[in-house]
Design goal:
- Helices cover 42% and strands 17% of the residues.
- It has 349 residues and is α/β, with parallel strands linked by helices.
- The protein has two domains: 233 residues, Aspartate Aminotransferase, domain 2; 94 residues, Aspartate Aminotransferase, domain 1, CATH 3.90.1150.10.
- It has a seven-stranded mixed β-sheet with strand order 2-8-7-6-5-3-4, with helices on both faces. Strands 9-10-13-12 form a four-stranded antiparallel β-sheet.
- Helix 1 crosses helix 11, helix 2 packs across helix 11 and helix 6 runs parallel beside helix 7.
- The chain is globular.
- The two termini are 24 Å apart.
- It binds pyridoxal-5'-phosphate.
- The site of pyridoxal-5'-phosphate has 12 residues, from helix 3.
- Pyridoxal-5'-phosphate binds next to helix 3.
C-alpha cells in the first residue's frame, strides 16, 4: 500500500497541528492545583462566558467531565433519566454506578432524542420504595444517534419539564461544537437550558486531550472537589489549555468542512449496492451505514476496509461508522467511497 491509511475511526485520532503545538509551547504555565495556571484560568473563564454560565473546570477527558457532572448533582441511590444509546450508558465503564452509586432510567427514541413525556413517565414520585430521580442527561450531538443535532425546541421542552419536576439537567456536549457550527446557534443558546455542560477539545477541535465542565459556582466548586477525588487534577495543564484556546480560535469554523465531507461520504455510500446510508440524517461529522448481510458482518467488512487502507469501526453487527475530521482531505473521502464500493462489488460477486 503506497497511500497512508485513511483513518475514519474517530475524530479523536487527529494529530495536533504545528501551529497548535507552537501555541502549546508558548502558553504561560503555573500550577493548576494551586489555581495559578493563567492559561487554564483563561480557558475556564472563556468557556464559562461562551456557554453563559458562571464557572468552568478543565479536566482530562470527556468521560471524566460527564462523571464529575453526575457526581456533583446526584447522591448514591439516585436515578438518572437518560437515553439508552448515550455515551454515559454505553461507554463509560459503568462509571455512574461505580463512582456515584446511580442507576439509569432508560429512555428510547430515534436518533438519541426523547420527549418531555418520556421524562414525566420515568420520573419517580417521592416514595421510599423508589430510587430518587435527580438528573436528566442529554447528548448533543448524539454519537450513536448518528451525530444528530437535537431540535432546539424539543431540547428546551425536555429541560423545562425536568426542571419543573425538580431535576437537574446535564448535557454531554462532547461534540456540541458541531451542533453550534451546523445550526448557527451559539454556545449560550445551546447551553441555556442546562445546569451543567461537558464539552471536549480532543475530538473535532483537534487537541491532544482536555474537556471542560461548565455550570454555576456551587456545582463547579463540587466538580473541583470530585476532580481531586477522582485523581483528575493536573499541574502545568496550561500546556493542554493552550491547545484548547488555540482550537477555539482556529478550529471551530472549519468544522463545517468536516460536515460537508460527511455529506459527501453519506451520498457516496448511499449509491453503493448493499449499503444503506441516509445523507439526510447525517447532520454533522459522524456517518453511520448498514451493510447487507450478504456482505458479511460489520467486523469482517471493517477488516476488508483496513486491508484496503480505510480504518473504520463496526458499532453493531451490521453497522459501521465513518468519522470525518481535521486530518482527512476531500480526495481521501472520495477514495474511501471508491474503496468501499470496490469491496462491496468484489464480495457480492
Ligand atoms: C458523546 C461522547 N461523550 C463523551 C465521550 C468521552 O470522551 P473521552 O474519550 O475524552 O473520555 C465521547 C468519546 O468519544 C463521546 O463520543
Amino acid at each position: 500500500m503506497t497511500n497512508k491509511p485513511i483513518d475514519l475511526r474517530s475524530d479523536t485520532v487527529t494529530q495536533p497541528t504545528l501551529a497548535m503545538r507552537n501555541a502549546m509551547m508558548e502558553a504561560p504555565l503555573g500550577d493548576d492545583v494551586w489555581g495559578d495556571d493563567p492559561t487554564v484560568n483563561a480557558l475556564q473563564e472563556r468557556c464559562a462566558a461562551l456557554f453563559g454560565k458562571k464557572d468552568a473546570c478543565f479536566v482530562p477527558s470527556g468521560t471524566m467531565a460527564n462523571q464529575l457532572a453526575i457526581r456533583s448533582q446526584t447522591q448514591p441511590g439516585d436515578e438518572i433519566i437518560i437515553h439508552g444509546e448515550s455515551h454515559i450508558v454505553r461507554y463509560e465503564a459503568g462509571g455512574a454506578a461505580a463512582l456515584s452509586g446511580c442507576s439509569f432510567a432508560i429512555v428510547e427514541g430515534a436518533r438519541g432524542f426523547f420527549t418531555p413525556d418520556d421524562v414525566k413517565e420515568l420520573f419517580r414520585p417521592d416514595d421510599f420504595h423508589f430510587g430518587r430521580s435527580s438528573l436528566v442527561s442529554l447528548e448533543n450531538t448524539h454519537n450513536r444517534g448518528g451525530g444528530s443535532i437535537w431540535p432546539i425546541q424539543q431540547l428546551r421542552d425536555v429541560c423545562e419539564v425536568s426542571h419543573s419536576l425538580g431535576l437537574h439537567t446535564h448535557l454531554d456536549g462532547a461534540r456540541i461544537w458541531h451542533a453550534i457550527i451546523e445550526s448557527e446557534l451559539d454556545a449560550a443558546t445551546w447551553g441555556a437550558p442546562f445546569d451543567t455542560i461537558s464539552a471536549c477539545f480532543s475530538k473535532g477541535l483537534g487537541c491532544p486531550a482536555g474537556s471542560i465542565v461548565v455550570g454555576n459556582k456551587e456545582t463547579i466548586h463540587a466538580v473541583r472537589r470530585f476532580r481531586k477525588m477522582f485523581g483528575g487534577t493536573m499541574r502545568q495543564s496550561g500546556i493542554l489549555a493552550g491547545a484548547a484556546n488555540f482550537a477555539l480560535d482556529n478550529h471551530l469554523e472549519r468544522l463545517k468542512t468536516d460536515h460537508i465531507h460527511a455529506k459527501t461520504l453519506a451520498r457516496g455510500l448511499h449509491a453503493i449496492d448493499g449499503v444503506a446510508c441516509d445523507a439526510e440524517t447525517t447532520d454533522t461529522n459522524l456517518v453511520f451505514f448498514d451493510i447487507d448481510k450478504m456482505l458479511g458482518d460489520g467486523a469482517s467488512f471493517c477488516r476488508k476496509l483496513w486491508e484496503n487502507g480505510v480504518l473504520a469501526e463496526a458499532l453493531d453487527s451490521q453497522r459501521i461508522r465513518f468519522v470525518t475530521h481535521l486530518d482527512v482531505t476531500e480526495p481521501e473521502i472520495e477514495r474511501a467511497i471508491q474503496i468501499t464500493a470496490d469491496i462491496c462489488k468484489h464480495v457480492s460477486k
